[in-house]
Structure formats: C-alpha cells, structure tokens
Amino acid sequence: MRSTTAPGTAPVAPGRIPLLGHLPRLAVQRVGFLQSIRAQGDIVRIFLGNRPVYVLNSPEAVHEVLLTQSRKFGKGLLFDVARPFIGNGIITSERDFHLRQRRVLQPAFHRDTIAGCVGTMTDIAEEQVSAWRPGEVVPMDLVLRRMMTVMLVATLFSTERPDGAAAVAELGERVAEQLTTVMRGVFVGTVLPAPIASSPLLGHRRYLAAAAALRELADTAVRQARQAEQAEQAEQAGSEGPERRGGAGHGDLLSIMFAGTPGNPRGMSDVEARDELLSLLMAGAETTSTTLAWALHEIGRRPELTERIKAECDALPVGALPAAATLPFTERFLREVLRLHQPSWLLMRRALEPVRVRGVDLPRGAELIYSALTMHRDPAHYPDPLRFDPDRWLDRTEKDLPPGAYVPFALGNRKCIGDHFAMTEMLVVLRSIVSRWRPRPVAGHRVRPVVHALIRPNALPMRVSPWPAD
Ligand code: HEM
C-alpha cells in the first residue's frame, strides 16, 4: 500500500469539502466510497463534517485493532448513538462491565445449548414454510425478518414459560416491526451531524417512537418473566423443600440473566436484563434475516445451488444436527453469502488511549471505521470477488487467508457471541425451505441493495414451487 503523507499520519481521502468533509460521498456512495479509498493506505482519514474518522483499509489493520491491540479500543460513535435507546447491554458497554455481562451470557451460546434449541428453531421454520402454497409469491425478506425475530425471541424466552409459544410469537412479531426503524435511526445518527439526523424529513420521530416501543416491549417482557420466575420459585419452595429454592430456571437466556453468579450473586437487575435483551435483539435478528434473504436471492438466481443444497439436506440422517460437518456444501454456501453479502458494512471503534497501528499514530479518542464487506471483496484475496462461488472455499480455506481478510463475525473481545447460533439457525431455515420448495425470482422485479445500518435487498418476492415427485 502506498502512502505519501508524513510518517505516523494517515493520508486524507480525496474529495474533502469544506464543512461537510466527506459526508456527501459517504452518504451517496456508501460502500463504493469506502472501496474507492482502499488503495490509499492501510489507514486513511476521512472527515464526517469536521470530525476526523480513520478508515481501516487492510486486513492487517483490521486484525490489529480487533484482536492484537483490542484492549486499547472501545466501541465508538455508532454505539454512543445507540446507547440512549438500547441501553448499556453487551453490544454497547465497555471494559469490565462488558466483560462481566459477556461472561454471564456466554453459556447460552455454548454449542450444547444451541444444539438444544434446534428443535424449537425447526418448529418455527416448518410452521411458516409448510403454510406456503404451490406457485405462491412469498415476500421472502419480510417472512424471514419475522421468522428470525420470532426464533430469537423463542430462544431468549423459553416457550415452556406459562405465557407459552403464542405470546413468544406475538412478541417476536411486534419486535420485528420496530427493529428496522431503530437500526436505521442509529445509522443516520452516526453518519450525519445531529441537526440533520434529527430532521423530521429523515424520519427522526418515527425512529424515536420505534425505539420507545421496543424498550417498552423489552421492559414488559422482563417484568413478566421475573414475576413468573418468582411465582414458580415460591411454588417450588412450598412443595419441594428448600433445596430447590433459587433455581427455577428454564435454561433460557432470561433465566441465565436472572441467576446469580459468584461475582454477582443477585443476578442481573431488571434494567440490566432489559438492556441485554435489546442488545441481543439488535444484534441477532436483522443480521440473520438479511443474510438469509441474500442466500435466497442467490438460490433464486442459480437453480443448481438449490439442487445441491436439497440433495445434501435430504441425505441428512434423522436426528443429525445441521452443522458444517453434516451439511458441508450448505455451510460453504452460507460462508460465501457472508463474504459477498456481508450485512454489516460499517462498524466502528474508538481509541481509548494513544495507539500506533500499522505505523499510524492514532490519538486518544480517535474514531475508526472498519468494513468487513470491503475486506471480503478484495481481489488480492478473492479472485473475481463479485462472483458468487461457494466452491472457492474448497481451494482456499479461511486458514489460508491473511488474518483480518474474512471477518463476518469480527474478531477478538467483541467478536460476535452469536456466530454459531446464527449459522445453526440459517442452516435450519435453509433446510426447511429447500427441502420442500424451489424458490424462484419473480419476473420484472429487480433486486437492489439498500444500504443503511445493514445492506439488505430492497424487496425479495419469490415464487415457490414444489419439487417434482421422484
Ligand atoms: C449472520 C448473522 C450475524 C452476523 C453477520 C453478525 C455479525 C456480528 C459482528 C460483525 C459483530 C461485531 C460488531 C463490532 O465489531 O462492532 C457482532 C457482534 C455481536 N453479535 Fe453478531 N452477528 C450475527 C448474528 C448474531 C446473533 C444471532 C446473535 C445473538 C443471538 C448475535 C449477537 C451478537 C452480540 C451480542 C454481539 C456483541 C458482542 C460483544 O460486543 O461482546 N449476533 N456480530
């Protein structure tokens, strides 16, 4: 990489405009702008208005910030904007508090725990997919958004709770209604100066209302779950003696949050649990539904992929869990979807102290942007990068790539806690859809990427036809 600036400083990207800086280019070109400044250096400075922001352009810089020097970085502006609305949960919190919360939540994401959720995930997917009729046009993006939110909510709140599966499904649907608006508002508030971001023309009121509604839903859900938990504990204490006291858990995430730990014997407060719930909903619903929407888009364009996935899923022995080992092609296919259609195109960090990265001195408080998407489309590591080809992963595995070149779930202390959960959910859903149906694009509809907090298809209507009988 070439740099013409003084040692220790990052070059400034071309096209800076007085007062606005590079905002117009970022707002209009978005990913294209980040791609266009990659050749300028490992780290390049852009200006959002007058605010300098350092863009990490090389896998080495990404790897250093996310992993080897991760302790020197916090989460940055994007998460400052989100915090007043979604609270101080795992995605927004910092340092010791973040570590403590992450440790509490971790057991919910162990492989064995996730294996225990596959039945619920499959039931939710099957319920939806079995209701489709041959030849029906399914609004796939909307259906997936609802399905993945309900799936996440169902694993956060056990359906064995007294309020049951119907309440979980209803909550999931109501959350799904608000999430997209909240995520869009956080994105707008990050890239645009406050006076512009809060303009009614950009839907600021809708954003505030959606954030308040989401918070209210989470508050109520936590309160009800706490009351139910306490009632059950009281009942058990009465009927079974003191040895059962304090352990009325359902094994779901809320029970894990409520349970005491050696460092925090009383467990999380209602506010902490509410914030974690919001964090997990923000991080875990739209990411999976968007990735799956792109997966279905690719399937629709390439019928031979559908056939390979179906053949593999049909051969899965009864009782075997959908996983990389049992569905290798389907997993490779999803890995390629996460490469080419990585939903998180812009994430941020902030230097908590002065730090040198790839020869560039970053002052304390420096805001950083990294984009997994631009890493994933680098021709140096992915020949013909815009070609969708799951089999590229046969020739070159993740281990053959430079660290930082493939980071769909990030790296280091802030790596996605739900990576395995997400892959399992996506395999389950693909299996349910493709085992029964061949989804095809609808003539006349052009799928275009819409870039906000995530990159998602504008709309994805698909016609589903059954497989011919053997
Ligand atoms: C395809 C789906 C998913 C993708 C692509 C994805 C991607 C990511 C990425 C890139 C990060 C790091 C963000 C950063 O660097 O600032 C992250 C963090 C996180 N993800 Fe995911 N994610 C997915 C699904 C999920 C799911 C299903 C859950 C939970 C059920 C989840 C929970 C989280 C949490 C809690 C964090 C914050 C971790 C921390 O800061 O300690 N994600 N995810």
What do these coordinates show?
The protein is of the alpha+beta class. The chain has a single domain, classed as Cytochrome p450. The protein is built from 19 helices and twelve strands. The chain has a five-stranded mixed sheet with strand order 1-2-8-5-3. A three-stranded antiparallel sheet has the order 4-12-9. Strands 6-7 form a two-stranded antiparallel ribbon. Helix 14 packs across helix 16 and helix 15 packs across helix 19. It is globular, with a radius of gyration of 23 Å. It binds protoporphyrin IX containing FE. Protoporphyrin IX containing FE binds next to helix 13, helix 14 and helix 19.
Short description:
With 470 residues, this protein is α+β, with helices and mostly antiparallel strands. The protein is built from 19 helices and 12 strands.
The CATH topology comes to Cytochrome p450
Class of secondary structure makeup: alpha+beta
Strand content: 5-15%
The percent range for helix content is: 40-55%
Low-confidence stretches: 242-248
Which CATH first-tier class would you pick?
Mainly Alpha
Radius of gyration: 23 Å
Please work out how many helical segments DSSP would assign: 19
Shape, please?
globular
Structure summary, number of beta strands? 12
Kindly report the oligomeric state of this protein.
single chain
Task: Trace the largest sheet across and list its strands.
Answer: 1-2-8-5-3
Q: How is the main sheet built?
A: 5 strands, mixed
CATH architecture: Orthogonal Bundle
Q: Could you report the average pLDDT, rounded to the nearest whole number?
A: 89
Distinct small molecules bound, one entry per kind: protoporphyrin IX containing FE
CATH superfamily name?
Cytochrome P450
